[in-house]
Amino acid sequence: MPSQLETAMETLIMVFHRYAGKEGRNGTLTRRELRLLMENELSGFLKSQKDPTTIDRIMKDLDANGDGEVDFEEFVSLVVGLSIACEACYRAQLTNTQSWNL
């Protein structure tokens, strides 16, 4: 039976490949595929962004090798960055909850 972390990694891989390769090269996300992935899988994050160029900026930041597509390794950096931000919010909420209980 896989652990929670193993299941999370498998889910991350499966989600990436659900969107990757429909256009462009197999195993990469085009700008449109990245937009679809984010609209469907990260809709809360996307809705909180006020800048209509968010996807373009994210695509530019992720595309480390400049080939116009995002491979899995480049995609993982987005997930890591968002996870770090979410963990910081989690810690802040935890601190606020603990201070209310004192």
TrEMBL record:
EF-hand domain ranges (all copies): 50-85
Keyword Calcium: yes
UniProt cross-references to SUPFAM superfamilies, sorted A to Z: EF-hand
Annotated GO MF terms: calcium ion binding; calcium-dependent protein binding
Keywords of this entry: Calcium, Metal-binding, Repeat
Domain of life of the organism encoding this protein: Eukaryota
A Gene Ontology term for the protein's cellular component: extracellular space
Nucleotide-binding in keyword set: no
Protein name: Protein S100
